[in-house]
Predict the structure.
Amino acid sequence: MSVIDKIFNYSEDYKYKVWKIFGIRISIVKKYQSKKINIYEEIKKHEIISFDIFDTLLIRPYVKPTDLFLHIEKLYKIKGFHKNRIEAEKLARGKYIDCEEITLNQIYEEIDDKYKRFKEIEIELEERILTIHKENKKIYDYALSIGKKIIIVSDMYLPKNVIEKILIKNNYTNYYKLYLSSDLMLTKASGNLYKYVIDDLNVAPSSIMHIGDHFTSDFNNAKLYGIDSVFVEKIIDTFLENNIRAKKLLNENKNNIAVSIMLGLSAFSSLNKNDKNNNYWHNFGFIYGGPAVFAYMNWLKKQIIKDNINEVLFVARDGYSLKKVFDIIKPESVKTHYIYAPRIIYYLITLDFSMRLKYYPIESFEVIKTVIEYFKDKDEYLQKQTPKITSAIEGYKFILSNIAIYKKLAKLEYQNYKEYIEKFNIDKNNIAVVDTCSFFISSQRLISLFLGKENIVGYYWYLLLKENQNYKIKSFQKIKKHLFIEWNLMEFFMTSPEAPIKNVVDSKPLYSIPNEHEKKRMDVYPYVSDGIVEFAEIVKNCFGELELFINYKEVTEWINILACTPTEYDKKYIKNIKHNWSIGNNKYIPLIQRWFIKESGKKYYLFSFIPFLRKEEFVGGEIKYYLFSFIPIIKIKTVENMRKYYLFNIFNILTIK
């Protein structure tokens, strides 16, 4: 490299023009990106419409195409396959350097003998996971509908018969010809495949328009041969470009197939283009709630098969989207129900507050107060004598002093709920109750009063109290290390668009009158739920019964990155959503507290009057120091037992484990 090249260097990639001056990188977006074209109008101008296949007509649900090999390695527990398969392709291309393309057979000639049997498995997985790019399918169908001749032109080592089978499976039919590099041994990358296409069709190059995702092979090289071309960006590139959290998760999880699949599937959200506000919440549910709910329900599916469960009761309101997703992936023989079992009914029936008074005295006041207020109007004596309690102990003493009256009223509540439960006709053997995070498993305790606790297994995301061990319980997340910074987010992803439930009367839920916070949440949640369900549907269509290896670790990390990485765009929507954290449904906080709530800042003064340093402590433990009260100098974050120090709030200068 010359001295001039070291000082000044120019290069281009498919997105940017890049100058390096004295080692400083200066880049600008290429002008073609800002040029808006109407692809449907362009199609009308051409006789022949040509499509690329991979990342254009069809999408792999991974971050990188080679992650398919990593998936095979994990599925079949065959260590080293991913690396060996990539290396075998490099060796084959080096061996057949005089050929423009290689075949899958030639690749597997170079692979280690113990991996040769995976050639057919690789083909089967490609056939299984490749799915429609729905925006480009619309373009394809439009071109057919107006009588255009469709051709498909692709650089790919897979055999032609395999590609044809995959196209048919995804309803890409009625095309005129398929031009495949592994069949013709010519590529778009060299440009020779375009020359072959023009000669074979015996048409003027300008009569063809080619659509593809590779800037050099699909866009530039087509133009070099006189073919009009349209560049369509890969959805994974679009997603990663627009989601700083996804890039962070990916950077921290190299060669993690679960993360690759989570983000590869989440990229499908870039194809959702509906009403702006509704689309935001749909995609919010799809990207963040989708992987979380699917991972939990996939674990549940494996557990109920193992435990021979016949019926699954999803507890309202957290069970709303859980049930929807589980119904997509569950065994056909398993029955599911959405059941109202609010904790307040358990206390109305049992009058047992002992565990709450022991472990959660603050919320006990709300529980006991709610019970006293509920029963107050159901008895003449209580109507006159019930005091306005100021503490849980005071309320509990009043109940005990009038226990005969309360027990009589509790029996009526028992009978009322029994009539509701009996309408489900539940077989009293091998029943599952599904909830989220629980302290006292009150819903399982309530249902056990009628179905017998020996017949019920409770499944939870996470359990907080060991004293529940006399019940059959299992949790998805067992390790405290991977805990959510903002559990409110998880409740938001799972809580139904219903108002808080006061009781069940005549076998129907009796709702509280929703306040403005509940109304806002209820308005947006149907779109969130639709996004969560769509994620599960795409998983089912792409992978069927294949394991994705998405566990609570990956999900927790993903949701925690969301909680710790606010953007102004997200704040605009999130700021209007409040989360209720009290049994009395009267205490609301921001959905993501750390984005909006901070503790009072401490100021340090030089010479007693110059504000030299300001310290801000954010909810969740994040600390920021500002020089002269406004210049950010140090940020301290604690994540999973690690304390990270950032200079100017950006550069990670120190990590202490």
